[in-house]
Amino acid sequence: MTVKPTTLSTLNRYKQENKKFATITAYDASFARLFAEEGIQAMLIGDSLGMTLQGHDSTLPVTIEHIAYHTRCVRAGAPQAFLIADMPFMSYSTPEQACLNAATLMQAGANMVKIEGGSWLIPTVKMLTERAVPVCIHLGLTPQSVNVFGGYKVQGRDEQVAEQLKQDAIALEKAGAQLAVLECVPVSLAKAITDTAIMPVIGIGAGNVTDGQILVMHDLLGLTPKPPKFSKDFLQEAGTLRKAVRLYVQQVEQIQFPQEQHSFS
Ligand code: KIV
């Protein structure tokens, strides 16, 4: 059976059809292959690898070379998947720097790059998209800003911050962003942003109202010592790796995950 490549058009169609979709972080060929075989069409080579693979307590030590290496590994295992590669800390501090570093990730096999932050990224999003690099924006709890936030905290509970996040999403989409990740925000805010955005919105700790979901693979497989509230150990419930991934995909598609206990109000 030939599997067609997943593209941004696929994810846009899912949004239009109101079909929820599951995505996951992936860092190597073997897991990427298994994820693709169990129905995951889009994967993120996340800078969470700084914590999950490298054992640091934040994503800050991750470099462009690390993400490029893991993007090549994931591409080898999942040739038809839609791959989003994270731009690590300080790799997109100017639009020009972002372009050079994004080229490295696209040449490693990414279909899109992800950058964390609000309206200050407008010129960067414009420059990347004009140069044929599709951009995913990451809003809410942006882990590269952990030292500014003073910890990994829910964002957008305050009305002013919530309004700012909505305006950021609108402005960045207008600048050219074609996908958004919303992390650790109240469900009502996630719904407002998802309903307003034309681009698909993928949530993590944002309730079941977003178009797609993402989980860090180590959380899904019960490998995280202190798992976040929004995650779920699917391996414990399903018993085997394959069944765990399949269960995650099914529960997202049938809006059975995430539930209220995984969300913030
Ligand atoms: O790096 C990562 O894994 C991420 C997800 C938490 C969305 O950005």
The Rg value, from CA coordinates, equals 17 Å
CATH architecture: Alpha-Beta Barrel
Strand content: 5-15%
Strand arrangement in the largest pleated sheet: 1-2-3-4-5-6-7-8
Give the helix proportion (percent range).
Answer: 40-55%
Number of domains: 1
- Give the full name of the CATH homologous superfamily: Phosphoenolpyruvate-binding domains
Q: pLDDT below 50 for ≥5 consecutive residues: which ranges? A: none
Specify the overall morphology.
Answer: globular
Please report the total strand number as a whole number. Answer: 8
CATH level 1 class label? Alpha Beta
Protein model, in words:
- This protein has 265 residues and is an alpha/beta fold.
- The protein is built from twelve helices and eight strands.
- It has helices spanning 8-16, 29-37, 49-52, 64-77, 95-107, 122-130, 146-149, 159-175, 187-196, 217-220, 234-238, 241-253, and strands at residues 21-25, 42-45, 82-86, 112-116, 135-140, 179-183, 201-204, 212-215.
- It has an eight-stranded parallel β-barrel, surrounded by eight helices.
- It is globular.
- The structure holds 3-methyl-2-oxobutanoic acid (KIV).
- 3-methyl-2-oxobutanoic acid (KIV) binds at residues 25, 44, 46-48, 86, 138, 181, 183, 204, 214, 216.
What attributes does this structure have?
TIM Barrel, 8 strands, 12 helices, alpha/beta, 14% strand, single chain, binds 3-methyl-2-oxobutanoic acid, methyltransferase activity, 265 residues, 3-methyl-2-oxobutanoate hydroxymethyltransferase
What's the quick description here?
With 265 residues, this protein is α/β, with parallel strands linked by helices. It is 42% helix and 14% strand. It is globular, with a radius of gyration of 17 Å.
